[in-house]
Target: Probable peptidoglycan glycosyltransferase FtsW
Amino acid sequence: MTATTDRRKAASAPTGSPVVTYYLLAAATTILVMIGLAVVLSSSSISSIRSTGGNPWTLFLVQFAALLLGLTALVLGSRMPIVWWKRMTPLVFYGSIGLLVVVQLTGYAVGGNKNWIRIGSVSVQPSEFAKLGLALYLGLVLAQMRKELTSLKAIAVPSGIAAAGMIGLVLVGHDMGTAIVMVMLTAAAYWVAGVPARFFGLGAAAASVGVIVLLTQGTTRIARIMTWLSADCDTQGACLQQTRGTWALASGGIWGLGPGMSREKWGYLPASDNDFIYAIIGEEWGLIGTVAVLIAFAMILVAVTRLVHRHRDPFVQITSAALGAWIVGQAFINIAVVLELLPVTGVPLPLVSSGGSSLIASLAALGVLLAFARREPGAPEAFAARPSMIKRSIAVVSRGRRG
Model:
């Protein structure tokens, strides 16, 4: 019996290097941030010139400042132990809810969505940080109730109510795109937590009814869907954005027109630095650039999958799944819209699109995943066994002098 048990444990033990997850996340983040900086500078320069009367750097500098804040959050967050993130979860979650309430009381709308508040001279979108708060909260609560998630009551209280309340606050501001991402995030958390499949059927039915109700309450939402479904649409009117996005992708070819050489950024493609930045990537960097972005998000997906399967802490497993569904799921929606596979939804491409709140929140989420990866079983020992870059450099210089 003992020998059989030992063989089963050996068979189920994680294989491969435990530091792969960490380096996958670090490499993917670097690729996406570097591509994002280059394309945001290019696509936002024209808007900056028009808004400032000649300075092409204005919007890029705002993005760069947000990048510095986001990288600070990533580095600090990646160094924190898992127990610290568990303790911080209530603060992040309830703080996010508080900010969403402030949005409804004193916020303002952009593009028909009331999801912005102003803090001093800075505009902030709290719904981006709410995604992080919800992922952490679901990870903490569902990990504690994992063996009890066999009844509708246990699923709904308290995690289901909390998720519904946060998503509801986002929907009050008419931001259906962000709400869809948060639903995906919640579903991934429940799936990894082990909720029986029959409850997902009930959830899908309820979500379908909710979507129908929301569509009937907004004429612009129905118009977007009808525009997407239309076989004969005005390319200079309702279909302008998607048509121009497709033209940008097509004109890039395999190698692209070159950095900064986009034609569509000159006011032809709306939201070229945000929702449709993937089209500018295709135009300037060609098929090579678009595939590089896809590979980077695939790397994040692989890393999240490794965390779910290799980590022993259920909090890490559930939170990782939720964060992965947010980052990769939102990227899928954004890219599918640009490729005309989905109607326009208005969600940015994580780590790439312009927008300080989105960039900071996404980098903070990657910081959480990196913290989990640093403590994957076997990873602390592997990191400790590898000499640091400075030590290796000193050793090389010392050997050179002796020689």
User: Anything to note?
Assistant: Residues 19-379 form one domain.
